[in-house]
């Protein structure tokens, strides 16, 4: 008898093929997120669950999971949707999918940076809506990022690849991280022990840290006041890192030139008050959304499940 694996969201054909070949797979082919009760109900007769960040495994959901469920093998690098302590206490393993989405997410960070700096959405809307009836050298003037300072908050895998891409624009890399990274990974980037020091020096601040109780709301009024006047904020990590009311204040006062955001406090949907501003470049949480990366994420989650049922330690265990 093959273990039963519940895949909560529609993944790629290649991932469906592999999970259906190797397991007794239950696939959700509707583009619908299971609510709390349905998630609990669907997990009752399964040995493993392969969810995305859209399924919330809070402590009460985990308490209601069956004894037979061995692993929550996430199709995401972020695991803030899972109460890791509760899972550990219940003896359920939790894994994620690091590395394989770093390139795709760094690409989106560059898109957000350039879209914000060069007024991408504003220009696109103007042309599409037939409002482009004027041109002058003073028209649609943005900020150049080439040669400026990139400030990376969270120098993990995605932060490091984003730094590499920014180096391609001749940007000088500064970063803040819980601890300094090895010199061969740092590649000359300037470490700031203190977040405020990074905020004061960077022309672009790009967020790449996980959402935790310590980082939630870290980009607040005080943080935006620290930033250089006319700086740019990029967020491809988690909406929870940013106090969106404070961001709106900084964008409307001119303290920030613009923001490029792929993630929001409320998802799906975003923040209508942010959407009403011109100086924002907005995307619907598509950092890892390339076919190559989606295949790789699904395979990586399945590698972790394979390890659990082969009695091995999964490579990407986080709890
Ligand atoms: C995904 C993400 O969009 O990996 C993460 O933490 O937020 C994204 O890559 C999502 O979780 C896909 O399942």
Automatic annotation (TrEMBL):
<dbReference type="GO" id="GO:0016618">
    <property type="term" value="F:hydroxypyruvate reductase [NAD(P)H] activity"/>
</dbReference>
<protein>
    <submittedName>
        <fullName>D-glycerate dehydrogenase</fullName>
    </submittedName>
</protein>
<feature type="domain" description="D-isomer specific 2-hydroxyacid dehydrogenase catalytic">
    <location>
        <begin position="6"/>
        <end position="318"/>
    </location>
</feature>
<dbReference type="InterPro" id="IPR036291">
    <property type="entry name" value="NAD(P)-bd_dom_sf"/>
</dbReference>
<dbReference type="Pfam" id="PF02826">
    <property type="entry name" value="2-Hacid_dh_C"/>
</dbReference>
<dbReference type="Pfam" id="PF00389">
    <property type="entry name" value="2-Hacid_dh"/>
</dbReference>
<dbReference type="GO" id="GO:0005829">
    <property type="term" value="C:cytosol"/>
</dbReference>
<dbReference type="GO" id="GO:0030267">
    <property type="term" value="F:glyoxylate reductase (NADPH) activity"/>
</dbReference>
<dbReference type="InterPro" id="IPR029753">
    <property type="entry name" value="D-isomer_DH_CS"/>
</dbReference>
<comment type="similarity">
    <text>Belongs to the D-isomer specific 2-hydroxyacid dehydrogenase family.</text>
</comment>
<keyword id="KW-0520">NAD</keyword>
<dbReference type="InterPro" id="IPR006140">
    <property type="entry name" value="D-isomer_DH_NAD-bd"/>
</dbReference>
<dbReference type="InterPro" id="IPR006139">
    <property type="entry name" value="D-isomer_2_OHA_DH_cat_dom"/>
</dbReference>
<dbReference type="GO" id="GO:0051287">
    <property type="term" value="F:NAD binding"/>
</dbReference>
<dbReference type="InterPro" id="IPR029752">
    <property type="entry name" value="D-isomer_DH_CS1"/>
</dbReference>
<feature type="domain" description="D-isomer specific 2-hydroxyacid dehydrogenase NAD-binding">
    <location>
        <begin position="112"/>
        <end position="287"/>
    </location>
</feature>
<dbReference type="InterPro" id="IPR050223">
    <property type="entry name" value="D-isomer_2-hydroxyacid_DH"/>
</dbReference>
<keyword id="KW-0560">Oxidoreductase</keyword>
